[in-house]
Amino acid sequence: MSTPPDTRALYNGDCPVCKSEMAVYEGCAARASLPIAFDDLNRTDLDLWGVTEDEAARLLHVLHDGRLHVGFDAFLVLWEQMPRYRWLARVGRVPGVYRLCRWGYAHVVARIIYARHTRRQARAKARAT
């Protein structure tokens, strides 16, 4: 019987940016035999995460050792576990860098990605009608 992963990442598999980035991390985790799972929000029970579909689509969520990390903090948790990315986590934890990256991800990067997501959903809905 296998043990459950120590870490789970919840991402939007319908988003090309999110999907490709998580595929890179998933490959790194697999090569290093790391106990990290990657859950597509469109194919998982979000009640288990305690988040809505909209919340999950807005920012990356990572569950690590029973604690939920959201946004840039979620990236830091993933990076800290992957040998190839640990240096990035160390840089990201430097106080000034941390504040800038946390703000930049939440207020610029994630908002752009989320806006593209909502446009894709609207186009799909329009084609379906």
Keywords:
5 helices; globular; 129 residues
What does this protein look like?
- This protein is α+β, with helices and mostly antiparallel strands and 129 residues long.
- It has one domain: Glutaredoxin, CATH 3.40.30.
- The protein is built from 5 helices and 4 strands; from the N terminus they run βαβαββααα.
- A 4-stranded mixed beta sheet has the order 2-1-3-4.
- The protein is globular and about 50 Å long.
- The mean pLDDT is 94.
Q: What is the name of the CATH architecture?
A: 3-Layer(aba) Sandwich
Report the major sheet. 4 strands, mixed
> How are the strands ordered across the major sheet?
2-1-3-4
Tell me, what is the CATH class?
Alpha Beta
The CATH topology assignment is Glutaredoxin
Pick out the low-confidence regions.
none
Helix content: 55-70%
Give the SSE string.
Answer: EHEHEEHHH
Count of DSSP-assigned helices: 5
Mean residue pLDDT: 94
Class inferred from helices and paired strands: alpha+beta
The total number of structural domains is 1
Query: How many beta-strand runs?
Result: 4
Measured by DSSP, the beta-strand proportion falls in 5-15%
